[in-house]
Each structure stands twice: as structure tokens, then as C-alpha cells.
Amino acid sequence: RWQKIFMIPLWSKMAVFWNKMFLTIIVLLIVLFLDAVREVKKYSAVHVNEKAANVNTNAFDHIQMKLFRSQRNLYLSGFSLFLWLVLRRTVTLLTQLAKGMASHAALETQVNDATEAAKKYMAENERLQEALNEKGSSKKKESAEATDEKLKKEVEHLKAELQKTSSALHKANNEVTAVKKQSEGLKREYDNLMKEYEWLQ
């Protein structure tokens, strides 16, 4: 499903600018986060000084309001930055998983095709051998042996191809399993972070 969503033409056009857009937003969020940290420090210090100096209530409320705004901006920019990184990692893992599954399916069809072709050649080889055994003339036997050798070579070649494709399928299976484990680890890590966030709230 995610692969179909990512294959929408709009996404493929945006993919060219995706890294630039991601880095731009990351830089923007970092700048906002650092600005919010600076504002919180600034108004926290002013808040302590004003409290100590016992200024009038309106000025104290004004400083309190600015401190609240700066703290709100700090939380918003910090969590936005964190969730943006999580989103990027999730999209990357989903894309890798979709590619792995697609290559796995392609390798499976290739293996099935090679197996069917090998069975077909072997059946044809047996049929030719039976036909040659029935006729029994020496010239036909020689040509039959040559054809038989040729067919044996083809069968060996197809077996080698089948072996190569099977090893590629095994490798793709291992890659898909690794990507699935990685995505499960990311999910667990995300759940833990969300629990910590809830606990902090």
C-alpha cells in the first residue's frame, strides 16, 4: 500500500527536492528551537530579577506572559524537530521495505520461470531419448548422442542459473527480514519515546 502511495507521480516529482526540503525544514526548526531556548533563558532571568525587585503587578504579568510564550515556542519547536526526524526515518524504512518486497517478488517469479523452463527441457530431453532409442540406426544414434549432449549442457546451464537465482532469492529474503527487524526496532523506540514524552507531560 505504501509503495503504491509513494509511486504517485506527485511524490516522484517531489522526490527530487525532498532532501533539500528536508534539510531546509531541519535548519529552520533548529533555528526556531535555539531562538526559543534563548528567549526562555532571557525571560527566566528577567522574571527572577523582577520578582526580587518587587515591581508592579502589570510589569510582572507582562514578563510572565512573555516567559510562557517562549516556553510554548520551545516545546513546539523541540517536538516538531523530533517528530520531523522520526517521520524522515519512517519514510526511509518504508521505502526500503517496499523495494525489498518488490525485488523479492521479482526474484521469486524469476526462480519459478527458470524451474519451469528446466522441467520443460528435461521432459523434452526424455522424449527425444525415447524416440532415438526406438529408431536405433547408427547415424541417428550419433546425432542423438550429440543432441543429448547439447541438451545435457543446456540442462546443466539452467540448473546453474536456478542455483544462482535461488541464492539471490535467499539473499533478498535475508534483506527483507533485516529491514523488518529494523522497522520493528524503530517502532519500539518510537513507542518508548512517546511513553517518556507522556511521562514528562
Automatic annotation (TrEMBL):
Which GO biological process categories is it annotated with? apoptotic process; endoplasmic reticulum to Golgi vesicle-mediated transport; intracellular protein transport; protein localization to endoplasmic reticulum exit site
Keywords for this entry?
Answer: Apoptosis, Coiled coil, Endoplasmic reticulum, ER-Golgi transport, Membrane, Protein transport, Receptor, Transmembrane, Transmembrane helix, Transport
Q: Major location, coarse class?
A: endoplasmic reticulum
Q: Which segments constitute the BAP29/BAP31 transmembrane domain?
A: 1-106
Is Membrane one of the keywords UniProt gives this record? yes
**Region Disordered, annotated ranges:** 130-151
**Residues annotated as domain Bap31/Bap29 cytoplasmic coiled-coil:** 153-201
What membrane topology was assigned to this protein in its record? Multi-pass membrane protein
Q: Does this UniProt record's set of keywords contain NAD?
A: no
Q: Which GO terms describe its cellular component?
A: endoplasmic reticulum membrane
Q: According to its UniProt record, what is one Pfam family this protein matches? A: Bap31_Bap29_C
Membrane-crossing ranges are 74-91
Q: Which domain of life is it from?
A: Eukaryota
Localization in the cell: Endoplasmic reticulum membrane
Family under the similarity heading: Belongs to the BCAP29/BCAP31 family.
Task: Outline what the protein does.
Answer: May play a role in anterograde transport of membrane proteins from the endoplasmic reticulum to the Golgi.
What is the protein's name according to its record? Endoplasmic reticulum transmembrane protein
